[in-house]
User: What shape does this take?
Amino acid sequence: MSLFAAASDWDSATSPVLKSEQPADLLIHGRPFEVYQHGVKKDWGYKEPQQDTFIVVHPKNERRSAPLYVVLHSAGHDVVSCLKCTRNVGNHDIYRAPDDFYALYLDCRANKGDWWWGGMHLGDAELTKRNAGADPTPVENRVLDSIQWVITKYAIDTNRVYLCGNSMGASGTLGIGLRHGELFAAIKANVPAGIEHVSQRMCFPPLTVPQNVRLPDPPVAIDYSAPNDGWSAGHDRFVQAMHERKYALYFYWGPFGHANNHARIEKINDLINSFDWLNVKKNEAYPVFTNASCNQKIPWPDDLASMTAGQINAFFRWKNISDTQGDLQMSLYLVSPTELKTTFEIPGEARVDVSLRRIQNMHVKPNQKFHWIFGSAKGDGTADANGLMTIPALKITAKPTTLRVGVAQ
Assistant: This one.
């Protein structure tokens, strides 16, 4: 199948259509909405026909080229009950879309076994086996085509499409979202119910990426999980894989269990909403921070009774300056205590390795030489076998400092 399906790619038997009766009890903060139903496209890979529903919520003030906030619900919800949660602050807060965004709420409850992760979890060996490997499941194909249909229908800003979810929906967010950096600018996972889906889709160790598969630079990922939540098992493997691949991860944890109320979680770890993920843009380069001196030791797998909250990469920020064929400039800095009120101690400086992804214009070839300048420091490097540039051990402070990178002549 093609990567995305435009509105015209759906035939008359499967194309989304407005339900004849719109629910009267779905008044969401006075925002207009539409409920659509559609059939199954053959190339999604479903074995049997089914009907699916999704709901589009409009911004409070209509505008063209608005961003899109895509929500995957938990196993305990369907698309309607998920949307009803947004009426009250504290009820699955990750479901609440900003007022100036379009929002897309998808469903996976109506059809048996149609889970965001394909039904994969460690407790069921047959389902794990059935859904193993790098190939997308039918539900992933459905999600991607549905998003593209909405992008076309509502003239969405394609550089500002974001994916999020809670529990099972957060597992789907990682598994579907990380694989599709060509679509999502950033993703956010609220207590994901397992990391097996994303491990399979991204071919994390002990798997390897097939030679014929080219993974796009993934979206910036935010994950907050609890060591006292059984569903969080394996996060040590997930964090290590993200580190080894040099994928951008902001990770927060603490003993808040399988929670969805942000105010309650923030009493334990007040960093979960501190990074402005909804201003990351798909058409802009971003830095990946690894081996940071200010990172804390994760409690997985041996200290699950830990009562300490922690973070990885929580304090790093950046601003793009320029991205031309011969030169990339990006400002790097630590967030300051005046910008971020937190119970965590924000360091005055930190050493960190910085890799550069989603570069728009200044591309380097695999194993090509490059040079860099960062304040008074400078040096030369060699891109890896995939063309990824990494500058080691930069000293970053609260004072914004420009990193300048160019191809060696």
Observations:
- The CA atoms of residues 188 and 398 lie 25 Å apart.
- Residues 316-409 form one domain.
- DSSP finds seven helices and 18 strands in the chain.
- Helices lie at 79-85, 125-130, 138-153, 168-177, 196-201, 235-245, 262-266.
